Amino acid sequence: MRPPKIAFVHDYLFNYGGAEKVLEAMLELYPESPIYTSMYEPSRISDVINRQKIICPQ
User: Fold this and answer.
1) Range of the domain at 23
2) So which domain of life are we looking at (predicted)?
3) Least enclosed by CB within 10 Å: which of 24, 25, 42, 58?
4) Residue-wise pLDDT tens digits, 4-52
């Protein structure tokens, strides 16, 4: 059986708050998973999240 393919979807990565802390915790479990989001501002997001592959239609 193949391992599951995991991807995270976050409405936007524009501020750092509780939802982003939860995303960081989930990334500890699945560190290779990409993140899909509608808005992304790297300067306002943690290094843990910025190290991930982030797909954003900008």
Assistant:
1) 8-55
2) Bacteria
3) 58
4) 899 999 999 999 999 999 999 999 999 999 999 999 999 999 999 999 9
With CA atoms as reference, report the closest residue to 13 among 34, 25, 31, 50. Answer: 50
Judge contact between 8 and 27, C-beta under 8 A. Answer: yes
CA atoms within 13 A on the CB side of 14: 5
- For residue 3, being part of any structural domain is answered with no
Look up the pTM and report it: 0.89
Distances (CA, A) of 22 to 3, 8, 58: 23, 11, 24
**Terminal CA-CA length for the chain:** 36
Say if 24 falls within a structural domain: yes
Q: Say how far apart CA 17 and CA 7 lie, in whole Å.
A: 20
